[in-house]
């Protein structure tokens, strides 16, 4: 059975909700999905999985979560050759050009690991609604077809 690790960072729960929805969808498609919180995770943990996923919030006008800085920096030095990745994020369009910037930063960081993008990164506005849930389901489907 293919395995996915979903690493999330959250303050108010939206990104954990995104991670939960994606994990449920992946499980339904026969992918064993495990969730962990970013500050409790080392990027080398991804080496035991086929799919590497990050669900992350953006803070302070384009900043990464402070509790995720070590994870972010160590990710660049982690060899994930042969694996797939994608990044999801809940942010707030109120922040204009800084909307979900952490998603783009993680996307770039994954590029240096050797992992391949499984499906386009997904940006979500605040708490996922029906439309977002549909898009998360599409992400899960695309991921499952790569395996
Ligand atoms: C002080 C502050 C700064 C924020 N800065 C940004 C930002 O630059 N870009 C963005 O997209 N969202 C920004 N947000 C919104 C959060 O990313 C958004 O509420 C997100 O859904 C929180 O995720 P969480 O519920 O998983 O903690 C900010 C929120 C706060 C409180």
UniProtKB/TrEMBL annotation:
Q: Which residues form the Flavodoxin-like domain?
A: 4-144
> What GO molecular-function term can you cite, just one?
FMN binding
Q: Which cofactor does it need?
A: FMN
Which InterPro entries does the annotation name?
A: Flavodoxin, Flavodoxin/NO_synth, Flavoprotein-like_sf
Keyword terms = Electron transport, Flavoprotein, FMN, Transport
What is the superkingdom listed in this entry's lineage?
Answer: Bacteria
Tell me, in a sentence or two, what this protein's role is.
Low-potential electron donor to a number of redox enzymes.
PANTHER family the UniProt entry points to: FLAVODOXIN 1, FLAVODOXIN 2
The family classification in the record reads: Belongs to the flavodoxin family.
Q: Can you say what this protein is called?
A: Flavodoxin
Task: List the source organism.
Answer: Companilactobacillus ginsenosidimutans
